[in-house]
Amino acid sequence: MSTLRVPEPVPSVADDCEQLRKAFKGWGTNEKLIISILGHRNAAQRKLIMQTYAETYGEDLLKALDRELTNDFERLVVLWTLDPAERDAYLANEATKRWTSSNQVLMEIACTRSPQRLLLARQAYHARYKKSLEEDVAHHTTGDFRKLLVPLVSSYRYDGDEVNMTLAKAEAKILHEKISEKAYSHEDLIRILATRSKAQVNATLNHYKNEFGNDINKDLKTDPKDEFLAILRATVKCLTRPEKYFEKVLRLAINRQGTDEGALTRVVATRAEVNMKFISEEYQRRNSVPLDRAIVKDTTGDYEKMLLALIGHAEA
């Protein structure tokens, strides 16, 4: 008869802080110890660890991590340790400063977070940068991208499951008309994608396919090189099937010549506590390789170990 393995109790916050302090002391940093603690604590636990560390040692834990760790491992640990709203604010700010027409990070944050989570990220942005996310997005983007991204990051969608089918049919027709006219940045098309609840967008796009024969993203693929069309397709995917969007980001990050650690780090750090299970399943289905094996093949050392701890495939 097999016995159930009882999970080991999580040490106290004070113990975690003491161990982290030890990891930073002496000759060289004990990265394995850092992974064994931070890689296995949820957002609420990490927040308590940061507060207690600052109270006990008079030092910001993030600054200590920044000082003691390097490269991709450091970025992954710091992003993961941050409060989720603070993390989104940081990533959004970075994306505005480095904005190019192929950068989809702002859209990703706006469309894959719950309305409440996006609101918290916008509040964290105010507190940290002394300005609003939407004013920075407006300042750093141009043209059609600005027309789409400002309403997306400003949105506070309804989060319920109720759907108005009459509205879905009417707006599917509007979307089809505008796409047929190649009016991809028309205010009605952007209004529908930027303000309707995710359930309503899903209903509208299902009706679009039933009524007009194509998936909307197929009709938005008329020019594969057009980066505005690419961000519109990604917006649709993030609102309706986020695990498919994130699988593609991971696949491109891992399969390109030289790994795109920035994208790999961002997706794992932001999705590990949200829907990583579905992303991993989608990755396996699409690539016939488990995500953890792809990560092992493509990364090394402490960075690899931390990634594996976060996607739930390692006993660190």
From TrEMBL:
Keyword terms, alphabetized: Annexin, Calcium, Calcium/phospholipid-binding, Metal-binding, Repeat
GO molecular function terms noted in the UniProt entry: calcium ion binding; calcium-dependent phospholipid binding; phosphatidylserine binding
SUPFAM superfamilies: Annexin (SSF47874)
Positions that bind Ca(2+) 3: D298
Pfam families, per database record: Annexin
Coiled-coil regions listed in the entry: none
Domain notes: A pair of annexin repeats may form one binding site for calcium and phospholipid.
Name of the protein in question: Annexin
